[in-house]
Automatic annotation (TrEMBL):
InterPro entries: Acetalactate_synth_ssu (IPR004789), Acetolactate_synth/TF_NikR_C (IPR027271), Acetolactate_synth_ssu_C (IPR019455), ACT-like_dom_sf (IPR045865), ACT_dom (IPR002912), AHAS_ACT (IPR039557), AHAS_small-like_ACT (IPR054480)
Assembly: Dimer of large and small chains.
UniProt EC number: 2.2.1.6
Source organism of the structure: Shimia haliotis
Keywords: Amino-acid biosynthesis, Branched-chain amino acid biosynthesis, Transferase
Name of the protein this chain belongs to: Acetolactate synthase small subunit
Its biological purpose: Catalyzes the conversion of 2 pyruvate molecules into acetolactate in the first common step of the biosynthetic pathway of the branched-amino acids such as leucine, isoleucine, and valine.
Catalyses which reaction(s): 2 pyruvate + H(+) = (2S)-2-acetolactate + CO2
Top EC class, one word: transferase
Domain of life assignment: Bacteria
Family per similarity comment: Belongs to the acetolactate synthase small subunit family.
Length: 187
């Protein structure tokens, strides 16, 4: 006779229900991937996303350790929790990948992005664009009689909000760097 007694009809204590339950709702995650700084590594990482139909919302890559020849790839992607777990596991299997950190679930992190906005306008629209730029602490880095180029740094939501407000004022073009992120704290 078994020492473990389970009520009839109860599945909450079944050994078959030990897998975590995932939702089907898409989530946005920021992944920090530490890789060897060598030719082809970025192509392999991007190939993983493209080959499986995963979307990349933001991508930044830069060397972070010159002597150790290491680069950091920061990827913002969206998917169900199962898809995010698959992405992390598959990234971890790439030979040139040293670490994969999901900054979204590992605790508090700081995310920033740089964007340039070209806004054309005259009269009241020009004045309003300057007023909004001041509120958002955007810098006018170029000015002609017909247009401005504003530089703005902040969280992606701040960048999006500024773009939404500039559209009716004559937003012509936007260039964004993509998200750079670090986890908070001493580790």
């Amino acid at each position: 006779m078994s020492a473990l007694k389970i009520k009839k009809g109860s599945t909450s204590h079944s050994a078959y229900n030990l897998r975590p339950t995932f939702s089907d709702e898409p989530e946005t995650h920021t992944l920090a991937v530490l890789v060897d700084n060598e030719p082809g590594v970025l192509a392999r990482v991007i190939g993983l996303f493209a080959g499986r139909g995963y979307n990349i919302e933001s991508l930044t890559v830069a060397e972070v350790d010159h002597t150790g020849h290491m680069s950091r790839i920061t990827v913002v992607t969206t998917g169900t929790p199962q898809v995010i777990e698959q992405i992390k596991a598959q990234l971890g299997r790439i030979v040139s990948v040293h670490a994969v950190h999901d900054l979204t679930v590992e605790g508090a992190s700081v995310e920033r992005e740089l964007a340039l906005f070209k806004v054309a306008g005259a009269g009241e629209k020009r004045v309003e664009a300057l007023r909004l730029a001041d509120i958002f602490r955007a810098n006018a880095v170029d000015s002609t009689l017909e247009s401005f180029i504003f530089e703005l740094t902040g969280a992606p939501e701040k960048i999006d909000a500024f773009a939404d407000l500039m559209r009716p004022l004559g937003l012509i073009e936007v260039a964004r760097t993509g998200v750079a992120a670090l986890s908070r704290g001493a580790e």
